[in-house]
Amino acid sequence: MSITIEQARHIVELMMEKDAFSQWLGIRVVDIAPGICQLQMTVGEEMCNGFSIAHGGIPFALADSCCSFSVNAHGRKSLSVETSISQFKGIQVGDTLTCESTEESLGKKIGVYTAIITNQDGVRIAIFKGTYYRSDKRWLEPEDQAAGEAAL
Questions:
Q1: Count of domains for the chain
Q2: Contact between residue 54 and residue 95 where contact means Cβ atoms under 8 Å apart
Q3: φ, ψ of residue 92 in degrees (nearest 5)
Q4: Dihedral angle at the C-alpha atoms of 131, 137, 139, 145, nearest 10 degrees?
């Protein structure tokens, strides 16, 4: 069964409820559908390193959450197995970051995603690539999926 946009939103809500780190980062879900996601967050002082710029883990975490939400929105519980990021520009306190993920490949067991992070001026900050293992465990039971589809 395919997952609807409403079901994808519900899955990401379930994920965010237990995702203390994404909550701490102040990540906001702007858009979600199976295979795609857009997130935003604002950088705070507590996220900065000794150079007074955002720690490299901040954009990495934003992009990893974005890609993870994208792959999980297909309905199967999925975890990263390999990730990387290339950062092009420093991130300042007060910057609003937008991250958009794209599904590059989706197979039975593996999904590959890229994410682009931009700042409030539309300047590209980083590019992220993630490979995710797709387990057989489902976020929604088949009867939940059928009920959701019948309601539409």
A1: 1
A2: yes
A3: -100, 155
A4: 120
Residue 125: domain span: 5-147
| CA–CA gap between residue 20 and residue 15 (Å, rounded) | 10
Q: How far is CA 75 from the centre of its chain?
A: 14
Is residue 152 in some structural domain?
no
pTM above the 0.85 mark?
yes
Q: Can you give the CATH number for the domain in which 38 is found?
A: 3.10.129.10
| Sign for the pseudo-dihedral over CA of 43, 47, 53, 57 | negative
3-class secondary structure, 109: coil
Does residue 53 lie within any of the structural domains?
yes
Neighbouring residues of 41: CB distance < 8 A, sequence distance ≥ 6? 25, 26, 27, 28, 62, 96, 97
Tell me which amino acid residue 64 is: D
Q: Give the Cβ contact number of residue 67 at 10 Å.
A: 29
Q: Which two tokens stand for residue 14?
A: 């379930």
Rounded to a whole number of angstroms, the CA Rg of the chain reads: 16
Model confidence pLDDT, tens digit, residues 106-126 = 999 999 999 999 999 999 999
